[in-house]
Backbone:
């Protein structure tokens, strides 16, 4: 028997993988990796109406995109019915489960009445009083029934040591005789999940603290099964900037939406990892390798974490700037190809050109979606000045624009094709402000608009080098 930790991520495929789920997955994965344990992917698909193959595929895609690999699974609860049936049999044989014939309507009426009295709103345990023979006779007669857990009377509170929250205690009278198996034969989450955890020999259950109140119920099931109780680690919720539970109101919450918006998986991984966990309280940039070796449960914070969209975007920019130039070049080329502006062959032939462009771009953006708009002018035959360029530059001082463009044209025509590089271009244009008697910014701005069609672009001289002599001169001529 191995004593290595075994953890699982168990999403319900009722929607896409959202940020909170992704963080739970990251913590489980990082914990398993940090101690040589196993990370298991389990799909909790017991809700047939809301579980879809598309959601399952999407969750797996998003996990893979984040770089999370699993050692076992995915296993599906819908394929494990026999395990729950066997567990139920064990519980009922040991007197830990009983049949309940109360109809949904009866249950609702009694619950409302109890609530009205301000009492316990759980099941009133009326079917507990049935003898085994009575219950069997009613079942044989075809009456529908569910199975409930018989919460023991002779036990103290359920206490466990949560790895994040410390000692946690639930008095027994707060625990409902909850349904284990519904009248249609399907297991409930609280039953199936912990039966699976026992069957899969899960040692640590790391999950959101919305499941805290389920924990005593699940511990009682384990007791009935005489199975060991894993260590629980309940993660505090993620809040939006307004202190309310993170939701779509605050911004995108789906992992794949971030992929589509130009975020890098390593940036989102880093950001989510630090949302409630810290390496040393200071380090803000943590890569997967560090997480895999240094993650620990004892540095998970008890406090809710606030999702800071701007910080994530900042972090993404840092990752873009700091990634090896070859990789950025590759990403940039892919984006350009997707946009139909260049093809694979162009990238092969002009690799050196792309490598020169890459750092000029990576320094200026925070999201990969900014790449194409920033460099489009280099991949098209001609450009039209955009609206800002029209109003802020061309329309503002047409006389200066004309003089600046003509002077620039004259200077650049003297730079030979063979010498067409940033240094020569810069030298040729050095006295442009003096020639047109304007501040440098105002003297060069028309040139930028002519070349890039916009007031924002990579540095001007470098842009002209990359655009090439012929196209640069043609664009200046067209506007002057
Ligand atoms: N399927 C449950 C969920 O997505 C799993 C909770 C757990 O980890 O026990 O919330």
Residues:
């Amino acid at each position: 028997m191995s004593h290595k930790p075994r953890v699982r991520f168990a999403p319900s495929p009722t929607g896409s993988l959202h940020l909170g789920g992704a963080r739970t997955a990251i913590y489980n994965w990082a914990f398993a990796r940090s101690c040589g344990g196993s990370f298991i992917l389990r799909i909790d698909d017991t809700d047939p109406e809301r579980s879809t193959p598309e959601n399952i595929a999407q969750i797996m895609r998003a996990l893979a995109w984040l770089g999370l690999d699993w050692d076992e699974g995915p296993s599906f609860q819908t394929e494990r019915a026999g395990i729950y049936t066997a567990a139920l049999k064990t519980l009922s044989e040991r007197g830990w489960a009983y049949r309940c014939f109360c109809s949904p309507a009866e249950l609702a009426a009694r619950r409302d009445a109890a609530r009205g009295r301000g009492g316990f709103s759980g099941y009133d345990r009326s079917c507990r009083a049935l003898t085994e023979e009575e219950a069997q006779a009613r079942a044989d007669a075809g009456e529908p029934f569910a199975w409930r857990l018989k919460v023991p009377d002779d036990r103290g509170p359920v206490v466990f040591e949560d790895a994040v929250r410390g000692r946690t205690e639930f008095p027994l009278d707060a625990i409902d005789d909850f349904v284990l198996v519904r009248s249609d034969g399907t297991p409930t989450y609280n039953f199936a999940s912990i039966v699976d955890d026992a069957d899969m020999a899960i040692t640590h259950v790391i999950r959101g603290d919305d499941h805290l109140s389920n924990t005593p119920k699940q511990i009682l099931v384990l007791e009935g099964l005489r199975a060991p109780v894993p260590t629980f680690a309940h993660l505090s919720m993620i809040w939006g900037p307004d202190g309310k539970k993170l939701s779509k109101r605050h911004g995108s919450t789906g992992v794949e939406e971030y992929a589509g918006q130009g975020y890098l998986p390593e940036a989102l991984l880093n950001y989510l990892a630090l949302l409630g966990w810290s390496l040393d309280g200071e380090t803000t940039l943590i890569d997967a390798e560090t997480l895999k070796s240094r993650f620990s449960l004892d540095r998970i914070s008890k406090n809710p974490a606030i999702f800071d969209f701007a910080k994530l975007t900042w972090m993404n920019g840092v990752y873009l700037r700091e990634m090896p130039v070859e990789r950025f070049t590759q990403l940039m080329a892919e984006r350009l190809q997707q946009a139909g502006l260049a093809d694979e062959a162009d990238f092969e032939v002009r690799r050196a050109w792309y490598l020169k462009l890459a750092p000029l771009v990576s320094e200026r953006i925070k999201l990969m979606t900014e790449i194409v708009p920033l460099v489009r002018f280099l991949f098209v035959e001609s450009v039209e000045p955009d609206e800002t360029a029209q109003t802020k530059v061309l329309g503002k001082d047409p006389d200066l624009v004309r003089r600046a463009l003509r002077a620039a044209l004259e200077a650049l025509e003297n730079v030979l094709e063979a010498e067409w590089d940033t240094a020569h271009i810069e030298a040729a244009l050095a006295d442009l402000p003096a020639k047109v008697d304007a501040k440098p910014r105002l003297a060069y701005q028309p040139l930028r608009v002519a070349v890039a069609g916009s007031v924002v672009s990579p540095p001007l001289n470098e842009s002209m080098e990359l655009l090439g002599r012929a196209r640069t001169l043609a664009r200046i001529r067209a506007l002057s």
Observations:
- Residues 10-12, 44, 193, 207, 211 surround glutamic acid (CB under 6 Å).
- The chain has a mean pLDDT of 96.
- The longest helix spans residues 19-34.
